[in-house]
Write a structure and sequence with these properties.
Elements lengths: L12 E8 L27 E13 L5 E5 L7 E2 L8 E2 L8 E10 L6 E12 L4 H10 E6 L5 E5 L9 E8 L5 E10 L10 E11 L3
Parallel strand pairs: 1-12
Antiparallel strand pairs: 1-5, 2-3, 2-4, 2-6, 6-11, 7-10, 7-12, 8-9, 8-11
C-alpha cells in the first residue's frame, strides 16, 4: 500500500498501513500400530483484513461555519489493503474540526487466536513552517475506541519517535469473524500552529495470542 502524506496549509492527510504477523503451527499424526512412526507437520495461518466502514465528522462550509461531514464509501466497505488514497483527509483544518473513521478487522480463516492493536507511527512535523508544525503536534488529538467502547486519547506529540504510540484493541478467536474499532482525529486548539503541517501513519498489527 502506498503511503500518501499530504497536508494543505494546516490540513491533515492520514495514510494507513496494515501489518500482519505470520506464524507457524504444527499438527501431528502419529501411527504406532507398526514398527515405523509417521509424522506430519502442517503450517497454520494468521491472516487478517482491514476495512474502512465509515468516515464522519465536520467541515467548514462556504460561509466558514461548521457543518456535518460524511464521506460516501462505495458498497459501505473499503478494503484498505488495496486502497491507495488517504484514509483521513481534511482541508482548511481549524480548531474544532474532527473526523472519526470506523474500521473492521476481519479474520480470514486464521487457525489461531490472535491479539490486535493499532499504532500511530511515522509522526513528522512539516519543514516549511517548522515552529508552527511542532506546535500542531500537540494540538491534534487522537482517540482510539475499541469494540468494547474503551477510549484511549493522546496527542500526536506523544506518538512522535520511532516506536510511535500503540493501543491494544482486543483478542479474536479463530472462530470470530470480525471486530470493529474507531479512530478520531481532532484539532483541539490554535495559536502558534497556524499554517503548520504534520503527517503520520496508522498501522494495525495482529499477533498470535497462544504461546
Amino acid at each position: 500500500m502506498s503511503k500518501k502524506k499530504v497536508w494543505l496549509a494546516a490540513a491533515a492527510a492520514f495514510a494507513l498501513a496494515l501489518s500482519v504477523s505470520v506464524l507457524l503451527l504444527t499438527t501431528y499424526a502419529l501411527f504406532s500400530d507398526s514398527a515405523e512412526t509417521h509424522n506430519r507437520l502442517q503450517a497454520g495461518t494468521l491472516d487478517i483484513g482491514l476495512f474502512e466502514t465509515s468516515m464522519t465528522g465536520n467541515a467548514l462550509n462556504a460561509e466558514g461555519r461548521f457543518e456535518d461531514y460524511s464521506e460516501p464509501i462505495d458498497g459501505g466497505r473499503r478494503d484498505l489493503e488495496t486502497y491507495d488514497g488517504n484514509v483521513f483527509e481534511i482541508e482548511n483544518a481549524c480548531p474544532g474540526i474532527w473526523r472519526e473513521g470506523a474500521f473492521a478487522v476481519v479474520n480470514n480463516d486464521s487457525s489461531t487466536a490472535f491479539t490486535y492493536s493499532v499504532t500511530i507511527v511515522g509522526v513528522e512535523a512539516g519543514a516549511e513552517d517548522a515552529e508552527a508544525s511542532q506546535a500542531l503536534l500537540s494540538e491534534i488529538m487522537i482517540t482510539v475506541t475499541d469494540c468494547e467502547e474503551k477510549e484511549t486519547s493522546f496527542s500526536l506529540s506523544e506518538a512522535a519517535g520511532d516506536e510511535g504510540k500503540t493501543v491494544a484493541l482486543g483478542e479474536m478467536l479463530s472462530t470470530d469473524t470480525e471486530e470493529t474499532f474507531t479512530i478520531r482525529a481532532e484539532f483541539i486548539d490554535s495559536g502558534t500552529a497556524q499554517s503548520g503541517s504534520v503527517t503520520f501513519d496508522i498501522r494495525v498489527t495482529a499477533v498470535q495470542a497462544t504461546e
